């Protein structure tokens, strides 16, 4: 059983208080930081984060996984925009918009492999975040049969993307914490009143956050499974088979 907790923090200054509780781990991916924590220290760091007003818990789930296989999680939504202007099959109007769609959100793949003695965990993590920063309008003047001009516009998407594909190994009794840096937020809330967006005035960028991922091994799933015997067991005890799951 793997426990996955994904959080976003608006300001990365949380490291100042949490640093004494974390053990730094080398990471090859640029911009990514990793730490190891005892389960007790991980609980302290989570409580520290939940007490902040700029923290949002995006995902918190227990995953029952087969050893060595891949589990996929995704949370995406489509964003429509005017991709192109094309001739209309009808005579009027002479042009019609052609729409496109961009999938915005995050996709996560986890492939864990527990050692034979159960003390070490290898895990390949593949994460992708795609976010539409904004749609840039482009004005277009298209000719009409009467020598006039039809004015319209298309939209060019300005995207913010982030990728991670790396293998980590750590003791199974500890918690791995990953920080993706201040990147596109995996899941941002939409303003109910878009006209009151003050980001251009305050200088802050909407949809940016320090994305954090806590990964914890919770033990073999077979250890928590019970079987009700069909007949009373006198001298032997039947336990659930392992089946390569944890």
Question: Could you explain how this protein is built, in words?
Answer:
- By secondary structure, the protein is mostly beta strands.
- It has four helices and ten strands; from the N terminus they run βαββαββββββαβα.
- The protein has helices spanning 15-18, 39-50, 199-202, 221-224, and strands at 2-9, 23-25, 33-38, 55-63, 71-87, 95-114, 120-143, 149-171, 174-184, 208-217.
- The strands form two sheets. It has a six-stranded antiparallel sheet with strand order 2-3-9-10-1-4. A four-stranded antiparallel sheet has the order 5-6-7-8, with no helix packed on it.
- The protein is elongated and about 80 Å long.
- Mean pLDDT is 80; it is low at 190-205 and 226-246.
Shape: elongated
| Tally of individual helices | 4
Order of helices and strands: EHEEHEEEEEEHEH
Q: State the low-pLDDT regions, or none.
A: 190-205, 226-246
Average per-residue pLDDT, rounded, comes to: 80
Task: Name a few traits of the molecule.
246 residues, mainly beta, four-stranded antiparallel beta sheet, 4 helices, 10% helix, elongated, disordered C terminus
């Amino acid at each position: 059983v793997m426990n996955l907790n994904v959080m976003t923090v608006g300001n990365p200054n949380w490291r100042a208080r949490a640093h004494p509780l974390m053990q730094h781990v080398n990471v090859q991916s640029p911009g990514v930081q990793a730490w190891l924590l005892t389960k007790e220290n991980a609980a302290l760091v989570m409580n520290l984060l939940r007490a902040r007003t700029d923290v949002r818990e995006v995902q918190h789930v227990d995953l029952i996984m087969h050893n060595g296989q891949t589990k996929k999680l995704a949370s995406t939504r489509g964003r429509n925009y005017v991709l192109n202007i094309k001739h209309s099959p009808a005579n009027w109007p002479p042009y019609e918009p052609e729409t496109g769609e961009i999938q915005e959100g995050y996709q996560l793949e986890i492939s864990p492999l527990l050692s034979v003695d159960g003390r070490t965990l290898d895990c390949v993590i593949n994460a992708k975040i795609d976010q539409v920063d904004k749609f840039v309008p482009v004005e277009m003047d298209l000719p009409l049969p009467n020598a006039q001009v039809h004015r319209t516009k298309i939209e060019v998407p300005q995207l913010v993307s982030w990728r991670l594909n790396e293998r980590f190994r750590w003791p199974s009794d500890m918690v791995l914490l990953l920080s993706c840096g201040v990147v596109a937020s995996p899941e941002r809330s939409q303003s109910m009143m878009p006209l009151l967006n003050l980001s251009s005035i305050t200088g802050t960028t909407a949809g940016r956050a320090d994305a954090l991922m806590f990964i914890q091994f919770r033990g073999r799933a077979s250890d928590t499974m019970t079987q009700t015997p069909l007949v009373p067991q006198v001298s032997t005890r039947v336990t659930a088979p392992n089946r390569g799951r944890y």
